[in-house]
Structures are given as structure tokens and as C-alpha cells.
Amino acid sequence: MTEPKQKLRPLPAFIFMTRWLQLPLYLGLILAQCVYVFHFWVELKDLIGAALGNDAALQHIFQAVAVPNAPVPDKLNETTIMLVVLGLIDVVMISNLLVMVIIGGYETFISRMNLDTHPDQPEWLSHVNASVLKTKLAMAIIGISSIHLLKTFINAAAYDPKVLISQTVIHIVFLLSALAIAYTDRITTSTHNESKSH
């Protein structure tokens, strides 16, 4: 027999209700996702147009991947295509990050979505909490940082060594931060499990 639900007192009920103030933030992130989708299709359209010989699309591609102090190519080459594709992958990874923040954040901090029986429920959402969300966000940021670092290394000759070193150091800091978050989460989980077993 289930126990009757206890009604919250007015002040705790009001404080708990304020979690819905975060809803406009998640709706704003959905709009940001729409902007990324539009940007992705513009870049993809220009890449296809440049491959088919459209001069305006080719010039836009060169402007998009231009690096200060680097010679501008006069035709579509493998490096240019690689840089554009890396830019597209970057957009996809940031979009994935947005999905994790929107769905995971809403599920964790606002309200349950009750997706347990939905066939498309993301695998990670079944055990999402603030710690899991932080770890997944850290991993996504490392992926995005890796793409940016790779784009820099492709044009390494055009960059000052200080820029290369600073970007590498920043990437290493992201890696160490992710390891620290994962390690802290592991300690917290094991401590919690031990306290439950006693």
C-alpha cells in the first residue's frame, strides 16, 4: 500500500516551484541550436557549391577558413576541404553538447520527462544526474577543443609558436579537468555506496 503524498508547506512549495525559472534558459538554448543548424547548412551548401565550381561559394569557403599571415589558395584543395569539414564536425559536436545540456539539465534540475518507455531515449539519460552531466560535458568540451587544436596544427606554419603552445596548454588543462571531475565523481559514488551498505 502506497503512502499518501505529503503536501509541501507554502514556502518550500514556492521555493521548489522557482526551478521553472530555468525553463526560458533551456528554450533559449533550443533557439541557439536552430542557429547552429542553419550555420551548418550554409557551410555545407557552400562546400558543395565550391566543389561544383561556384566561384562565390569558393570565395566564401576561403574566407571561412582563412588564417592570418597564411597564403590564400586559388583553388579548392584537400587542406581547405579538411578545414571546412572540421568546422562542420565542430558544429555537430557543439550541437551534441547543447542537446546534453538541454535534455539532461531539464531532466536533472526542472522536471522528469518520463522517457523510460520511449524507444529513442538516449542511453545516458537513464542514469543522468549532476555528476554524470558534468563528466559528459567535460568530455564534449575536450572533443571540441581537439577539433580546434587540429585546425590550428593544420595551419601551424601561419601561427606564432606562442599561440600553438598556449592552445596546447589549454587543451591539456581541459583534459586534466575532465580527469579530476571523473575521479571526484568516482570517489563520491564509492563513498555513497559504502554509506548505503552500512
UniProtKB/TrEMBL annotation:
<keyword id="KW-1003">Cell membrane</keyword>
<feature type="transmembrane region" description="Helical">
    <location>
        <begin position="20"/>
        <end position="42"/>
    </location>
</feature>
<dbReference type="InterPro" id="IPR020761">
    <property type="entry name" value="UPF0114_bac"/>
</dbReference>
<feature type="transmembrane region" description="Helical">
    <location>
        <begin position="164"/>
        <end position="183"/>
    </location>
</feature>
<dbReference type="InterPro" id="IPR005134">
    <property type="entry name" value="UPF0114"/>
</dbReference>
<comment type="similarity">
    <text>Belongs to the UPF0114 family.</text>
</comment>
<protein>
    <recommendedName>
        <fullName>UPF0114 protein GTP55_04535</fullName>
    </recommendedName>
</protein>
<keyword id="KW-1133">Transmembrane helix</keyword>
<dbReference type="Pfam" id="PF03350">
    <property type="entry name" value="UPF0114"/>
</dbReference>
<feature type="transmembrane region" description="Helical">
    <location>
        <begin position="137"/>
        <end position="158"/>
    </location>
</feature>
<feature type="transmembrane region" description="Helical">
    <location>
        <begin position="81"/>
        <end position="103"/>
    </location>
</feature>
<keyword id="KW-0812">Transmembrane</keyword>
<keyword id="KW-0472">Membrane</keyword>
